[in-house]
Each structure stands twice: as structure tokens, then as C-alpha cells.
Amino acid sequence: MTLSIALIAHDNKKDAIVALAREFAPFLRQCRLCATGTTGQRLIDEVGLNVECMLSGPMGGDLQIGARLATGEVDGIIFLRDPMTPQPHEPDINALVRACDVHDVPCATNLSTARLMLAQWQSGVWG
Predict the structure, then answer these.
(1) What's this model's pTM, rounded to 2 decimal places?
(2) Which residues neighbour 11 within 8 Å (Cβ) at sequence distance 6 or greater?
(3) pLDDT in tens, 96-115
(4) How far apart are CA 115 and CA 117, in angstroms?
(5) pLDDT band for position 126 (50/70/90)?
(6) Which domain holds residue 69?
(7) What is the CATH number of the domain that holds 29?
């Protein structure tokens, strides 16, 4: 089974998600990836991953990913959030995290949890 993973990062976390993707690039190349706009484009340009880009988060990208999650098309989300900066689309962010809880889909919101999730998936133990 090919894992489907969504990758999202707020502006102050985009460098971190690129670094994380580089760290796990061989594994991520085996997955079906989608991401919000700018994050996805950076992962394509800087890491060479095949990523389906959604709209940017503030333009509805979080909602697009949430819809896929709700229909079983997303196996996990890595969402590196910036908790110190107010986001204009905060209700969409909360709805996405809530959808993860409702549908029992793993959601990493920081680097430590993201590394744990990716390492487990990579090992084939979980998923």
C-alpha cells in the first residue's frame, strides 16, 4: 500500500519542512504526497519530490486537504504550525486538526512528532 501524506507548513516553518523532507526524501519518494501551495512548490524545487500542490492555506488549501482526509484519501498529515504567529485562516487550521481527530488520522504539528511518524512509516511497523 502506498501511503498518502499531506505536508503543510506555516511561513516560519517552511525551511524546517524542507529540511525534514530532505532527511526522509528516499522514503517520501515512495509516497503519494500533497501539500499546500508554497510548501509544495518548495518541496518540488528544493527536494525534488513529486508533490500535488493544493491552494495555499489562506486560500483554502487546508480545507482541500481536510476534504481528502475525510474521504479516506490521506493517511497522515505533517503540519508544521507556527504557534507564535496569528494566522488569518485559524478556523480552517483548527478544522483540519479536528478532522484528524475525528477520522483517527495521525497529525504531527512539530518536528519531533513528524520525525517519529516518518520513522515508523519508513520502518513499515505502522500504517
Answers:
(1) 0.94
(2) 82, 85
(3) 999 999 999 999 999 999 99
(4) 5
(5) low
(6) 4-81+91-123
(7) 3.40.50.1380
Pick the catalytic residue from 11, 15, 45, 62.
62
Place of cell 518540488: 44
What letter would DSSP give residue 75?
Answer: S
Residue 86 domain-assigned (yes or no): no
**Domain-embedded: residue 11:** yes
User: Is residue 112, in this structure, part of any structural domain at all?
Assistant: yes
Does residue 75 carry a catalytic annotation?
A: no
107 found inside a domain: yes
Tell me the pLDDT tens digit for each residue of 3-34. 999 999 999 999 999 999 999 999 999 999 99
CB 81 within 8 A of CB 107: no
